[in-house]
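This entry is listed as follows:

___
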Amino acid sequence: MQYFVCGCTALLDAVGGVIHHIGNVHKYARKEDAPEKTLFIITTDGMENASHRYTYDKVRHMIERQKERHGWEFLFLGANIDAAVEARKSMAANYHCDEVGTALNYEVISEAITSVRACAAPLSADWKKKIDADYKKRGGER
């Protein structure tokens, strides 16, 4: 069987749906089962163009609400889009969607997760400096 995606990305529906779902999981979990920290890592290789349930404003509001009320953190990595437009600049990074850029994403995200798990403070804006340097060095606009 072959599968063709036809260039559709329902990014807002995916992010909004997961925020809603995880919010309910946390809401109904026993206190001892609720996580101390929640970190969302959103990675995409294209623009939003197929969502029907959620809008940019709705998802942005959901993200801000969870950050303010529960201290959730969100990282946004985008290829072929302007990630900083999609998310708060310090928590967004553009990357090259190739073997080197993707491997670097995994390395940096591993470091970010380790930092979040080990530290009570919010994630520093420096989390993405390696991705930003690679993006700029290899012809990105940032």
